[in-house]
Amino acid sequence: MKSLENLLPKLVVAPGFVLGFAFIYGLMIWNGVLSVTNSRMLPNYDEFVGLEQYVRLWDMERWHVALQNLVLFSLLYVGGSMLLGLLLAIFLDQKIRFDGVLRTIYLYPMALSFIVTGTAWKWILNPSLGLEKLMHDLGWTSFGFDWLVQSDTAIYCVVIAGIWQSTGFAMALFLAGLRGIDDNIIKAAQIDGASLPRIYWRIILPMLRPVVFSTILVLSHLAIKAFDLVMALTAGGPGYASDLPATFMYTMSFTRGQIGLGAASATMMLATVAAIVVPYLYSELREKR
Predict the structure, then answer these.
(1) Residue 283 CA neighbour count, 13 Å, CB half
(2) Which residues does 197 contact at the CB level (< 8 Å), separation at least 6?
(3) Where does the sequence pass through the membrane (predicted)?
(4) What is the CATH architecture of 62-182+209-288?
(5) What's the predicted TM-score (pTM) here?
(6) Are 114 and 229 in contact (CB under 8 A)?
């Protein structure tokens, strides 16, 4: 009877585990297979081309633009979200009034999907509908903000929308970390004559190291797979000036009929995510041992 009781939870979990393993890792393997074939509109397993799709991928200017945009977007998005989130968390950690209401306001953007965020910011940044038109209607006719329609600034519009969406998430993580620190540490430092900014810089922030790494990991993952925000806000345009690897993969696979090339780009995205996640997991598991 006891053996059956011990076996029952495993039997309940097993189907979900098997299906999850099959769909996640099975599709990863399938994508890898497609990337070494000459698949176009439909999968073609008869024509093996080796690494030819990867060679084509790295020879394409559009892929290099997508990678450059990814680096720029990741640095500004992750850095901006973390900086603003940390400042908001420190502000709320001062036990101010209505901190619950303010937390809700700051966290509200995270309740929205990236599609909604992208659509809203597209209206705000549209020169003929949003901020620029509002300023002109108010009499400031010399005001101009046409970043959304300029090829060299469109990616910054994606950054602005992404930071607005994710700052509240970073704030929640940092605030949870700050609330977990013993107040006696701060009081002892104040007795020794340390100012509040110095206490946060020298004592509190180093103690938030696990939270910082977790936030970087999550936000970097969101940056690498960013798709819906770009499609809703700029659709990769003007031209392909604001393309990211995810939008590049979608375009090649489903609108250009280049499934093999799209699979190769997806494999490169997977490798990028693994390059971030695996060292982090290794360091965490090593510390636990």
Answers:
(1) 10
(2) none
(3) 12-33, 70-92, 104-124, 153-178, 199-224, 259-282
(4) Orthogonal Bundle (1.10)
(5) 0.87
(6) yes
